[in-house]
Amino acid sequence: MQLDFSKLDGLVPAIVQHAQTGRVLMLAFMNEEAFRATAETGYATFYSRSRQQLWKKGESSGHRLIVKDIATDCDADTVLLKVEPIGPGVCHEGYESCFFRRLKGEEWIAAETRTFDPAAVYGGAK
Amino acid sequence: MQLDFSKLDGLVPAIVQHAQTGRVLMLAFMNEEAFRATAETGYATFYSRSRQQLWKKGESSGHRLIVKDIATDCDADTVLLKVEPIGPGVCHEGYESCFFRRLKGEEWIAAETRTFDPAAVYGGAK
Question: pLDDT value at position A119?
Fold first, then answer.
């Protein structure tokens, strides 16, 4: 069985879940090269749609993701990574998880506090 | 803040996580109508890319997903649902989770047993 990269123009969504707590930390995309790099190196590597290049998560921040387990779904068109995060969070806005906004009625509310200062980690850039 | 449906031609990925155990059960897609239906009814509703129509999860199988919480990420282009599943599993192949295959070396291995008989639940169709 091979991953099916055909449905999203060469990409598959990659869900990133904390291996110990089970918290979903982020969703990114992988092309075949990013998937292979992830499997071979043991560090999560994605494909940045905005920058159109491989994205070694944590390369600039140091917040890399050590991959403990890789699963795929019934249609082989999505990947689920269980990771051990290095550092206090994965989100460029300074949160442990990118999913820090919850729907309350019809509003999205940021319902938790930052775990690090993104300006100190990323400087001016994301 | 509004969800950003522009990056995938009107869709956002929707990660579905078991509200109690934290297991990631499936990934599907939502258009704006599916998102609104999910938020308003409290049952997970997706957009089927293959059938090109709204997909009320569990409508045929009875295995509906009661939505307990909805989150979005920093870029507002992905949704995370925490759900209470009705029934023994969400996967049309008869598993609790669609993510039943794990990477071992270079092979994807189905590493668990089915929780229901898909032929009995879905008949000949998915």
Answer: 93
